[in-house]
Amino acid sequence: MAQFAKMDKKALQQTRVELFKRYEEYKSQKLKYDMSRGKPCKEQLDLSLDMMNIKDYKSSSGTDCRNYGGIDGIPEAKELFSQIIEASVDEVIVGGNSSLTMIYDTIARAMSFGVVGSEIPWGKLPKVKFLCPSPGYDRHFAICEAFGIEMIVVDMKADGPDMEVVEKLVLEDEAVKGIFCVPKYSNPDGITYSDEVVDRLGTMKTKAKDFRIFWDNAYTVHHLFGEGDKLKDILEVCKKSGNEDRVFMYTSTSKVTFPGAGVAVMAASKANISLIKKQLSIQGIGPDKLNQLRHVKFLKNMDNIAQHMKKHAEIIRPKFLTVLDILHKELGDKEIAWWNKPNGGYFISFNTLDGCAKKVVDMTAEAGVVMTPAGATFPYGKDPRDRNIRIAPTLPAMDELKKAMEIFCICVQIASIDKLLLDK
Amino acid sequence: MAQFAKMDKKALQQTRVELFKRYEEYKSQKLKYDMSRGKPCKEQLDLSLDMMNIKDYKSSSGTDCRNYGGIDGIPEAKELFSQIIEASVDEVIVGGNSSLTMIYDTIARAMSFGVVGSEIPWGKLPKVKFLCPSPGYDRHFAICEAFGIEMIVVDMKADGPDMEVVEKLVLEDEAVKGIFCVPKYSNPDGITYSDEVVDRLGTMKTKAKDFRIFWDNAYTVHHLFGEGDKLKDILEVCKKSGNEDRVFMYTSTSKVTFPGAGVAVMAASKANISLIKKQLSIQGIGPDKLNQLRHVKFLKNMDNIAQHMKKHAEIIRPKFLTVLDILHKELGDKEIAWWNKPNGGYFISFNTLDGCAKKVVDMTAEAGVVMTPAGATFPYGKDPRDRNIRIAPTLPAMDELKKAMEIFCICVQIASIDKLLLDK
Q1: Nearest-CA residue of chain B relative to A71?
Q2: pTM of the predicted model as reported, rounded to 2 decimal places
Q3: Is B279 in CB contact (< 8 Å) with chain A?
Q4: Which candidate, B345, B251, B259, B256, places its Cα nearest to that of B296?
Q5: Is any Cβ of chain B less than 8 angstroms from the Cβ of A288?
């Protein structure tokens, strides 16, 4: 089929009739598929089943991991996770089962107490603003919204956030205290920040002395193809330019072992880590050390993790390729949609014609396929062009995924035709 | 030996010489005992070793506990923990490994967002005050101190906090937003609140509409003798008097299974729980469901938990009795110290003559026995009479415990003599 925009009204109407017939057929099947979140599938979870056989409870330091004690993780977990997150052992805190909680808690503490270098707690300021490269991760935006942090949309370019805009905003506005980054296989665009972007983020001048980069490196070892992308070490860049306290880095094993029962880690300068350890000793009794020990005994070392992640890739790569294949076949030459081809991570970012995303997601939902809500990839849930949809291919079984994507492509075409017909 | 106060100067000096000789002998042994925290001993931890054999990952609802999803706990955990905490299933949130974290997070959210019924977040008020029945739990006080919440000491009486004072303060001062309670086998006094105290707490008039009771029922099933004390259901009292949103209740399995890898639970009115669930969905991806499932499969039901707790009591009761025995033998008739005989919990609360506690703790530390710091049981670490010391008998082995208590009693006597000699 040709480009939709070049088709005349009658041809478009005829095409719509045919598409709608296919749509109704799918709808009558009363399907129930969930593609809303980046959830691993059962086969991926089974890759880590052996972890549940581990019954050790003594850490290498002799600590009984069953008992109280230890706020920043057991030594062998700090050792292994410092390698995953690419920092030194005294720059990491190994925590509980959620890096999102670590991020939320870091921001909550910044609001209540400030960070290293703050003159007053952020929550006492008249206004706090965060830069939000978008499309981005809805859970980051939800944290900002909860704390009343004003979000400023910054466009994502092919190699990361639009640094012209970032540099200008952080230089001129003291209220800009932070930026959210998913620097590797970004959510949802699958973009890995270029060395230049990392350099500029680490070295740029900021008006706020206590500006922070929230570096959510969730997909650091989550390659789909071969050795994957390389990301420059931002903590190192920050150190070299005298901005060592600027970055908070996070990652987890949520998509390495078990999403609900993984281990999260954060890294930052020694000064940052020292303050946070003090604050954590007020907040609780320390992370689940048994689960940390279980993870270390199972994951062993970086080579083994790389092998383990290859098994993940073998399961999910065919799903990504299937999505890309169906998108290409159904929409490839119609010039009504654009999407990325990521080297890793959990998503395919999909753009419709302006003003069609919400309609597409609603239509697919009516046919039994739940996608991530349109707009979710932008602050306040508002996509200014109403075009971005996040596709999460990992959870559904292959046959489900195929059907779901066919339905999706039908909906994209119908919504596009409806839009084009308005202009005819 | 007679009452110290009735001895003349010479007799006291002579006694001191003998005691100091014994002290020096112990000191030369270079002991290293830790009695600073209420930590279970290895034998207690071994009671739950079978929990590590549990490999189930499907919840009764069919949920794969390894994956994402669920913010308030898996159904069977909510079922069992609602019985432990004595609330209904829709009044509980089953969380991670620390009830202290749940308490901290509740207060952090109250400061940032307010609670049900708040007109503005507590953190936006010029002043927030909490009533702190003392002696009390140092980790509660540390949370207040971190958030700049002013702590007001309220005396503990034989059946709970001094309610005359509590009722007066909450009625006249709108800044009083909370009270910390460990209502059963209180930390450190081992007191269980009487029905009258529970009734008065639940029904009293408060000036602040969003006043909260932080009901840390940490030792609810932790009896030392038989069936243990009974505590009246405060949530029920609150409901009946139209104050259903007044209380946040907490407990955990930290001293049932593994302190570092247990499961915590909170309970409150449906309105409170509903708001908190919304807030938790911003903070993270939900608790470790595998650990919850492990706990349910291992603990099974309330009868089994009671049996399990009897095994704990069999291990730690002899330690409590040993401490009480040594205290009685060494100090019983000298009228220089007073202590409680708890029916449950983890501590013996010990009072010296006024002004002696710090000296006693310092002296025992010098002889290799680390006690909880003197003053720790009061807000800001300041015991106004410098007399309260928290004894935690559970962790040391029996022979260590005996030596430690002998050293402790020697130090109490020396410090008392030094005080009495000043007046001679």
Answers
A1: B260
A2: 0.97
A3: yes
A4: B256
A5: yes
Name residues whose C-beta falls within 8 Å of residue A84's C-beta, 6 or more positions apart in sequence: A220, A221, A251, A265, A302, A305
Q: Per residue of chain A (424 residues), give pLDDT as tens.
A: 579 999 999 999 999 999 999 999 999 999 999 999 999 999 999 999 999 999 999 999 999 999 999 999 999 999 999 999 999 999 999 999 999 999 999 999 999 999 999 999 999 999 999 999 999 999 999 999 999 999 999 999 999 999 999 999 999 999 999 999 999 999 999 999 999 999 999 999 999 999 999 999 999 999 999 889 999 999 999 999 999 999 999 999 999 999 999 999 999 999 999 999 999 999 999 999 999 999 999 999 999 999 999 999 999 999 999 999 999 999 999 999 999 999 999 999 999 999 999 999 999 999 999 999 999 999 999 999 999 999 999 999 999 999 999 999 999 999 999 999 998 7
* Structure token digits, residue B403: 């030596």
> Cα separation of A54 and A290, whole Å?
10
CB contact under 8 A, B96 and A97: yes
Q: For chain B, first and last CA: distance in Å?
A: 19
**CA distance, residue B24 to nearest chain A CA (Å):** 31
The Cα of A104 is separated from the nearest Cα of chain B by a number of Å equal to 6
Closest B-chain CA to A73:
B260
Name chain B contacts of A279, Cβ cutoff 8 Å.
146
Q: What is the ipTM score, two decimals?
A: 0.97
Q: Is the dihedral of CA B164, B167, B171, B177 positive or negative?
A: positive
Residues on chain A touching B96 (C-beta within 8 angstroms): 96-97, 288
A260:B285 CB<8 A: yes
Asked if A179 contacts A131 with a C-beta cutoff of 8 angstroms, the reply is: yes
Token reading at B237: 């009292």
Assigned token pair, B151:
């702590």
